[in-house]
Amino acid sequence: HQDLMALHSYNPLDDLYNHYPHSLRNIDELCASIVRSHRETSQYRLEELQALRWKVFSREEIQAYQSKTVDEMWQHCAVRLTEAVQYVVEFAKHIPGFRMLSQNDQIALLKTGSMEVVLVRMCRFFNTENNTVFFDGKFAGTEVFKSLACGDLIAAVFDFAHGLCALKLTEQQLALFSALVLINPDRPSLEDRVRVQRVHRSVEVGLTHILHRDNHDSLLHKLYQRMAVLRSLCSLHMEKLRWFSQRYPLTAHSLFPPLYKELFASEAELLPGAAH
Ligand SMILES: CNS(=O)(=O)c1ccc(CNC(=O)c2cnc(OC)c3c2cnn3-c2ccc(F)cc2)cc1
Hints:
Bound molecules: ligand 9GV
Helix content: 55-70%
């Protein structure tokens, strides 16, 4: 009974106050810095994406995408994905506590988490009314990605974006959820798991605080369920990348952006001299 009481009396805010006595005296400051960083590292404002919502590709433009070869389309998407990941790396750097982690732990979190945050952010630029996603300046349906020969991955990506859109997250909720997804203490090969746990918990307190303030406590549980789907999506992406690199080794090894290889190619495939 004593232990239960201890558990009940545990207030994650204590943890936050104990470990960040000076810089983050209140949770609002933590939330504000994460939301600011999210805004500053999104290439488009919500209003801009809303205004472009009905700008879809013409039949000719769709034809042009579909007549690209598999490796041309993969290369094109790898560039887009790497661009999106670079903004996520910037986002991570401004999460209080992330920079305090060791270089290796920062890279370990980004290696597995950056793709997940790209997918989470997709709900900002997904139109659930016509199942299109903002890509290359217009809104594209799954048929635009046909020449990737990854129909199941793209369908799963669209399904995930659709499902997350349905939760109607605010920018603030999306910012905190993105930080929570990134700062995951269960990632493999972390040196200082306890420290990652501490930062994770402070972000969790922030998200809980925001959801409580928005009178939307039930959302936290749903968001945790979504995180499980994210992991399967990322392993599907890795599986497709392995298939692609075997079939088009030259493209994968010499034409993909270095950051893409750094983050997504498994150690084995990384060229010996790959920049670290
Ligand atoms: C997030 N910031 S933002 O301002 O809202 C913003 C919004 C949109 C865009 C431009 N669209 C994209 O970058 C984009 C669109 N659709 C994709 O997939 C359907 C993308 C994109 C980037 N990677 N992937 C991708 C993800 C997973 C995967 F397995 C394969 C590709 C840029 C920036």
